[in-house]
Amino acid sequence: MEYNNLSLDLEVIERDYPDNPLEFFRNKKLCLFKACLEKYFPGVRWGMHDLLEELGLDVSICTNQSCCSGTFFQRNLITRAQFAAINERNISELNQQADIVLFSCNGCYNSLMRGRDFLNNPDVKKKTQDILNQLKKKSNAENYPGKYEILDNLKLRFVHDLDLLYLIRNDVLNTLKFGLKELKVAIHYGCHYLNLSRDKKTADAYLRDKTKLEELVTLFGGLPVDYQEREACCGWGASQLVLHPKDALKITYKKLKSAQNVDADFMLMPCPTCLYTLSKPEYRQKMNKYFGEKLDIPTIHINELIAILRGCEEERCITLRRKDKRIMEIYNTITSE
Amino acid sequence: MVNVLEKGYGPRYNDLTKYVEMSERFLTTGVVVEEALGDKLPQERIDELNEICNFARIKYVFKASKFNKNVKKKRK
């Protein structure tokens, strides 16, 4: 276990603020990391933004931030040093803007810490600094100190949206206008959340069952339902969905089918990439073609669900006027009298 | 249950063209999707990404995509 010190230490917050962890975040600048696939699910970002504003926190959208580039590293299109250099530039910019960065995407959250972990290798660290030095030479102006340095002892911290929502769940509950009306909810965490060790200090924290989504669903009045493929991948599998679509979609199919088999009303997850894979109509059509069954179970991100439960207007928090049939059934069920 | 997933989004193809286009978008806009939500990345940061990615495979994929486009145009 190697703990990445960029991750926010949730245990310390729980220890120091046992009655109201939200207080820890007062007077701190928060920013929401822009995950590329949020484009298709605007409520993932705007729902969270609106919630944190209602809770009185100082929150903004991260600026000057590029894609985390994890997708290119996974496909061997950039080296570790290049990945780390892209990462360090993002970290420097985020450090200018915020004390705490929030991630709605399992992949981005993992990537930013992974880039830092690569610097533990002295060769990669040297190559990364060489690249940053090149940028410095070509730059017209270094408009803040350390812009092109690998910054040690950063105060900046990262936290996954789900971990924050769980930590401040009682405050979130107080903002809700609707309940889940005992709807049956199948939970999907995603591989990069279930198997991430970088933000865990102990083996116990890493190995213990992940139940934060189930606990949130119960708190909000829903019924988490167990299903056989709960811990399975969404099917994205880095490039597998492109290289071996039938095999990858079989995993997606088994997951959705397994949730339908237990009569889940919808599937809930904390990652827009998993949401993309489990929701995309083209994939549903292909699954129908490959496996002869049309699966209709709706899917939703935890940030979108909370926005609906809060009664945050559809246009402001959830769809940004881009009507999405994927969540309309959930939306209509929850908000109906 | 009614099919609530009729409306589509994202690329309609599912082959390696996807990565060529993602590389192109990353090196020209800093993100991998068209018309990403929020503010655009300043040109200075995009230039940085191009500098960082010098001699990386992503650059060759990007160049190849431009070459293929030119060939297609000439054929027309």
Number of helices of chain A: 19
C-alpha geometry of chain A: globular
Sequence of strands across the biggest β-sheet of chain A? 2-1-3-4
Spans of chain A of 5+ residues with little confidence (pLDDT < 50)?
A: none
Mean pLDDT of chain A: 93
What is the first-to-last residue Cα distance of chain A? 49 Å
Shape call of chain B:
globular
Radius of gyration of chain A: 20 Å
Number of domains of chain A: 2
Strand content of chain A: 5-15%
Helical proportion of chain A, percent range: 40-55%
Q: How much helix, percentage-wise, in residues of chain B?
A: 55-70%
Number of strands of chain B: 0
Q: Quick one: biggest sheet of chain A? A: 4 strands, parallel
Distance between the termini of chain B: 48 Å
Provide the CATH top-level class of the largest domain in chain A. Answer: Alpha Beta
Could you give a short account of the major beta sheet of chain B?
A: none
Q: What oligomeric arrangement do these chains adopt?
A: heterodimer
Residue runs with pLDDT of under 50 for 5 or more positions of chain B: 1-5
Write the layout of secondary structure elements.
The complex is a heterodimer of chains A (337) and B (76).
Chain A: H1 10-16, H2 22-25, E1 29-32, H3 42-54, E2 58-61, H4 70-74, H5 80-97, E3 100-103, H6 106-118, H7 122-138, E4 157-160, H8 161-167, H9 169-174, E5 184-187, H10 191-194, H11 203-207, H12 212-219, E6 223-225, H13 240-243, H14 245-261, E7 266-269, H15 272-279, H16 281-291, E8 299-301, H17 302-309, H18 314-318, H19 325-335
Parallel strand pairs in A: 1-2, 1-3, 3-4, 5-6, 5-7, 7-8
Helix pairs in contact in A: 3-17, 5-6, 5-7, 14-16
Chain B: H1 17-29, H2 43-52, H3 57-75
Helix pairs in contact in B: 1-2, 1-3
Q: Can you tell me about this structure?
A:
The complex is a heterodimer of chains A (337) and B (76). With 337 residues, chain A is α/β, with parallel strands linked by helices. Chain A is built from 19 helices and 8 strands. The longest helix of chain A is centred in the first third of the chain and has 18 residues, at 80-97. In chain A, α5 crosses α6. A 4-stranded parallel beta sheet of chain A has the order 2-1-3-4. In chain A, strands 6-5-7-8 form a 4-stranded parallel beta sheet, sandwiched between helices. The longest helix of chain B is centred in the last third of the chain and has 19 residues, at 57-75. Chain B has a domain at 17-33 and 40-75. Chain B is an all-alpha fold. Chain B contains 3 helices and no strands. Chain B has helices at residues 17-29, 43-52, 57-75. The termini of chain B are far apart. Chain B is 55% helix and 0% strand. At the A-B interface, α5, α7, α16 and α19 of A face α1, α2 and α3 of B.
